[in-house]
Every structure is written in C-alpha cells, then in structure tokens.
Design brief:
Elements (H helix, E strand, L loop, with lengths): L1 H45 L3 H32 L2 H13 L5 H7 L5 H17 L5 H40 L1
C-alpha cells in the first residue's frame, strides 16, 4: 500500500531527525559544561571575599543556563526515543485521517531543513496536542522537533555569552 510506504518514509525521516538532534544537543551540552566550568573557575580565581560568594550564586546560575538548556533538549529527545517503535504506526493512523495537518508530515519528507520543518510543524502541534493520548509517539516527536532548535539556540548563545564573560574575567585577573 502506498500509505504504508509514505508512513514508513515519514516515520523513518522523523526518527533520523530526532537522532541527529540528540547528537547535536549532547555535543552542545558538553561544550556548554566545559565553557561554564572554565568561566566559573575563572570567576572563583578573580573574585575575593564577599565578591566570591556573590560570584558563586550569580556566576553559577549564569554558567548553568546554557548547560541546562542543552540538557533539557537532550532529555526531551531521550524521552521521545522511547516512543520510536510506535512512530510509524502513529504516522499511519494520523495520515489515514482527513486533517489538513497531514500535509505537513508529507511535506516534511521533502528534505527541508530542521529549522524550516519546526516552523511548519507549529500548526501540526495543535492538533497533535489534542490527540496526544492516541498518538503519543508522533506527538512526542513533533514536540521535540519544534522545541529542540530553540533550546539549542539558547544554549549556543549562552555558551558565547559565558565564554565572553570568562574571557573578560581572565583578562581582568591577569591585569589586576
């Protein structure tokens, strides 16, 4: 049947995207942890007395934000992975319906980027939220594809910010 082939192709494409996103999120989390730890250690070295206590609280939170964003993205993808065996069946069920949102899944299979897909998946998410009990794998997969790029962007921007802060602290510590 053609619908089975489409469901298999779409399901496989979603699983491939989720695996790539999980690898990306894990890599970003590792980089964020290294940059955050280096910046935090530099702050501990630079600040003395009462400034050290303030740094531990405020600097610690600043250094953890990118790590937290990347880990949340990775965990969201790990949770989604447990539904992977059901994904093709969920896609078949969804494509068998008469919803206009089914076209989003069929269009997804055209090879567009994850960022473009996540924007078009927004309309699909509304319907899947209502059917999350019926189609848990598809709901979790679409939720991850929509959420993870934003969390990854937040983590990357956080890494840049924390890295710049660490560089300024290091220069200040070396000069002072």
């Amino acid at each position: 049947m053609e619908s089975d082939a489409v469901a298999l192709r779409v399901g496989s494409g979603l699983q491939f995207t989720l695996r790539r996103l999980a690898t990306l999120a894990y890599g970003i989390a590792v980089v964020a942890a290294v940059v955050g730890a280096a910046t935090f250690a530099t702050g501990l070295w630079v600040f003395e007395g009462g400034g050290r206590t303030t740094w531990i609280i405020i600097g610690g939170l600043l250094c953890l934000v990118p790590v937290a964003a990347a880990l949340i993205a990775w965990l969201l993808l790990r949770i989604t992975a447990k539904y992977a065996p059901q994904l093709v069946d969920n896609v078949k069920t969804f494509l068998a319906g008469s919803s206009p949102a089914t076209q989003v899944l069929i269009d997804y299979d055209s090879g567009q980027t994850v960022a473009a897909s996540s924007r078009s998946f927004g309309a699909l998410r509304g319907e899947l939220t209502e059917r999350s009990k019926e189609l848990p794998a598809l709901y979790a997969g679409v939720r991850a594809i929509i959420s993870v790029p934003g969390l990854a962007a937040l983590a990357v921007l956080g890494i840049v910010g924390v890295g710049l802060l660490g560089t300024v602290l290091l220069i200040g510590g070396l000069i002072g």
